[in-house]
Amino acid sequence: MTKKKSKGADDDKMIETKSKSVSGKSQKQKKPVEKEVEKEVKSLKEEDLVQESATDSDYDGDNSPGSLHSDDFDSDIFDSEDDVTQGGTEDGDGESSEDELHDHEGSIDNEDDDESEQIDSDNNEEDGSDEGSERGEAVEESDSSEDEVAPRNTVGDVPLAWYEDEKHIGYDVAGKKITKKEKQDKLDSFLASMDDSKNWRKIYDEYNDEEVELTKEESKLIRRMLKGKAPHADFDPYAPYIDWFKWDDAIHPLSSAPEPKRRFIPSKWEAKIVVNYVRLIRMGVIKFDKPEEEPNVYLLWGDDSKSDQKSKHLTYIPPPKQKLPGHEESYNPSLEYIPTEEEKASYELMYEEDRPKFIPKRFTSLRSIPAYENALKESFERCLDLYLCPRVRKKRINIDPESLKPKLPSRKDLRPYPNSCYLEYKGHTGGVTSISTDSSGQWIASGSTDGSVRMWEVETGRCLKVWQFDEAIMCVAWNPLSRLPILAIAMGRDLFFLNTELGTDEEQEVVKEMLHSGNIPEPETSVAAIVTWLPDELHGGIKTRHFKNISSIDWHRKGDYLSTVMASGETRGVVLHQLSKKKTQRLPFKIRGLPVCTVFHPSLSYIFVATRKEVRVYNLLKTGVATKKLETGLREISSMAIHPGGDNLIVGSKEGRMCWFDMDLSSKPYKTLKNHPKDITNVAVHRSYPLFASCSEDSTAYVFHGMVYNDLNQNPLIVPLEILRGHSSKGGVLDCKFHPRQPWLFTAGADSIIKLYCH
Amino acid sequence: MDVEGEDVSRRLHVKFVTKLDSPFKVPVNSVAIPSNVTRLGLSSIVNSIIESDNPEWKTEPFDFLIDGELIRMSLEEFLLAKGISAERTLEIEYIRAVAPRKEEEPSLHDDWVSAVNGSSPRFILTGCYDNLGRVWSSAGSCSHILEGHSGAISSVAVINSKDAETVTVATASKDRTLRLFKFDPDESVDSSTRVRAYKILRGHKASVQSVAAQKLGDMVCSSSWDCTINLWNTNQSTSEGESVSVKKRKGNNQADESQSEGEAVTTLVGHTQCVSSVVWPEHDVIYSSSWDHSVRRWDVETGKDSLNLYCGKALNTVDVGGEGSALIAAGGSDPILRVWDPRKPGTSAPVFQFSSHSSWISACKWHRSSWYHLLSASYDGKIMLWDLRTAWPLSVIESHSDKVLSADWWKGENVISGGADSNLRISSGIAIS
């Protein structure tokens, strides 16, 4: 226990002795109450005999909660005293307390009081040991603790009757409803209060809907107030008076001497100074500022936006400038200002915004001018303007939108690029799904939904050869070697190798030998379930039958390997065919997701496999995981093309976006171009010119300049060049391919026409 | 100044002159004509003047030149544009208008007509996509069929037509060979005779695109998709290399013993892409155009290119002619016909550009005698006649219903053309003085 507290307790003692009369009164008041207590105690006696243990609580429980008797306060005082003076009286038990209660009943005198004080303290000892520390803290906290803790409820000083019928008592600081606690049954609450020894100290706080347990300090405070004392024990009402006034040699605090004369006569020295000033002014030594002259004329229609008004106010908005009235606004303007009937009629046809605000009219005299017809309307609009006037000055950023555009080179400097269509290849009866040019650029092959594959002469648009199949052709691809004029065709589950019968006789012999159906070796067991090689009698070649429909094919640059993609084949969806050995092998790694297309690296032994959302790069010579994963951020990849340098990849997607990947830079797209409103069906990169293109179901093809620099520090330059239109809107453009040597673009449309766009 | 005289049109004093012969001549008098007349007005004036002297005169369209330039707008505008003073008496030269006056019957082929040649006045030579060459003595009458190719014929050339009886022709085909034929165009037969080649020229590795013969007729040159130009000997039995190849090929060609084979004498290498067209206008100079965007002039003796004109577009056709047979005209993968003058030092820009076509130009040919006239054929189905003295086409022949693949002059006043509508068309009556 702190020293401070003990001192406070001593004070209490002192106060008590001083105000004996007060305590006497309180004891008189006590008497009828004690009778009640007595009755209750008597009724409890039997209980106590039965259960001796809970005497403390019983005693405390005598007092109904909220009813504060001076008796209780007394006992509390004793508590506090005990905290200090308590010695070895810990042996007090229920029975002794009962004895003391009887004492209370019997004779009430000071000595008895003293004894009972001691015993009461014993009774409360068990509590005290717990509460002692609490009380200590409470004292430390200072008496203004109530003010510091903000009330839980924030409704303010309103009649609580307003919330009587509500489920909540008010709102907390965050504005949430504080729900009422569930009210206990009266009997339950009574029983609970019987059980609780501290019940007499509890007060129900209606405002915050909670029970507050008064601390010792608080109860002491209340008791002092009831006694009519100062609530705080520290306050000393009888402190010695300190007289601050000095009474050294005066009997009265103020002097009554008469005012001296000097206070009434003007100062001679001041008069001398004034005379000196007058002299100096007359001599012209002191000069005054000239009074500022008000200009008596000012510019009525002048531009006052630059005036000092601006500097006076922080946010001065100059009023909008009105046009000066001209002759046409005169009541009697010259005839040339008056619009003719036709002009008036033409005003009627104009939009209301474009119509002139004022139409000049002639009046013979001022007297005949009617009232202004729009007066009411305009004053209403003015009111609207004031009401809707912005309170905050908006800082408008004045940026030319042109300057925000990236600086791109002019299209003229990037020539040649395909821009106009001169040749059309007509003959298919269904949409052309796929086209492919041979390595020299003399021929182009096309596959169509009508089941035919056609070979065209690029130069004239002449159809040279037609192969008819049963199903729609999915893909056509020329062998990249000029000495092997073989066409690979994907149709349904079959992949055909066709001899185009081009090339010299020696080359033809090689091709015939290669496509000879006799020497097909036994398939390896690992791929037997996926692919079977069969002779194709109908077209004099060979075909391979896959276990799922083929969606895309791609030749390796050396012209011997061909990859096929089966979109629904999942992990077995990509296989490699070797034409010279007529063998098939699966990729030496597992593919995650549904494959969409594959592309061979143009110079190294890598393969790019596009699944629906990602592109993975695998090293064909190493088995295992992907060497690189490109995150496209696209929803569904539809096509892919690689730059001839091998470091840049273009991916087209079904949401009309196109991504340019710079493999050296990052695995994220270097640029994403959102150009097509519909699915991109194919993308293409030119072999030698810095061009790439995309075609889409919106029946347009876009041509871009895509310059890749050898300098690693310089990023690729991408410039959109041309939108190629011309295909009919039905079905769009299904494929696009660049001419291998010229800056020309072939586009294959669902309208069964192939178009050649030249520079 | 008198205001009323100027209201409608001013009057010009003109004098009509001509280099034409007597029936077309008008008296050299100055006449006053209104300044707003066009070519048609001038033509009717001249016609009426001639008619006043010669009552049996049939109206004839004329074209008019002032200071060597054809009038293609009203006279007043022309003078303003050229800055010629209207004060003095103008001298207007008139020529007969260059336009076909008659369209002959079309000669139907079995397939697209890919090549025509009219260098011999006696016959028209055509090549067709049905692998056959044809000789037409006149419109609709086919006298000979040249057979043997296994691929579409891409170009034909007349090697030697000076000899009285037989003429020698060469055909180039997409089956990588050239074939030389000999026949007598004057033999009158009802049905067309089939002719087989007397010599097969093998050596190209890809489709042969064009063939041209030397003036003397001993050699032909051919260009091909394998980027080379090959030179071949035409005579039958001088070279010993041919006999060797005959022996080698004997097994295949047992049926006709007369056929011999030839190998290239020289190969001109330099183009990087398909050589689309060759011409051999002088003894040792060959011009070639290519898809690598260049026109080259080759010296036959050394085998080197002595001139390289860069065009920027893939070229399909080239021809040399015009003033001093030195102007090079070429057309290709755009609708512009360009004419270069290689004698102009220090520049490789074309001196003329004609751009009235709307598609690729497939053929262009200079008129053999005129310095100014040339024709161009295009995939837009039109053949246009051009005069260097004006930027507008003199006339547009729209007889074809599809792409025109080849066109040529014939006998100086006819235009023959073949196209994708499988017709050979002859537009005759073109008056070029």
Automatic annotation (TrEMBL), chain B:
**Alphabetic keyword roster:** Nucleus, Repeat, Ribosome biogenesis, rRNA processing, WD repeat
- For this entry, list what GO says about its biological process: maturation of 5.8S rRNA from tricistronic rRNA transcript (SSU-rRNA, 5.8S rRNA, LSU-rRNA); maturation of LSU-rRNA from tricistronic rRNA transcript (SSU-rRNA, 5.8S rRNA, LSU-rRNA)
Pfam families tied to this protein? NLE (PF08154), WD40 (PF00400)
Where does the NLE domain start and stop, copy by copy? 13-79
State the compartments where it is located.
Nucleus, Nucleolus; Nucleus, Nucleoplasm
* The keyword Endoplasmic reticulum is annotated on this UniProt entry: no
Q: WD repeat boundaries?
A: 201-242, 268-308, 354-396
The principal location of this protein is nucleus
Output a single Gene Ontology CC term carried by this record.
nucleoplasm
**Stretches for region Disordered:** 240-261
PROSITE patterns membership: WD_REPEATS_1, WD_REPEATS_2, WD_REPEATS_REGION
User: Which GO molecular function annotation, any one, does this entry have?
Assistant: ribonucleoprotein complex binding
The protein's role, per its UniProt record: Required for maturation of ribosomal RNAs and formation of the large ribosomal subunit.
| Protein family (similarity comment) | Belongs to the WD repeat WDR12/YTM1 family.
Full protein name = Ribosome biogenesis protein WDR12 homolog
Give the species: Capsella rubella
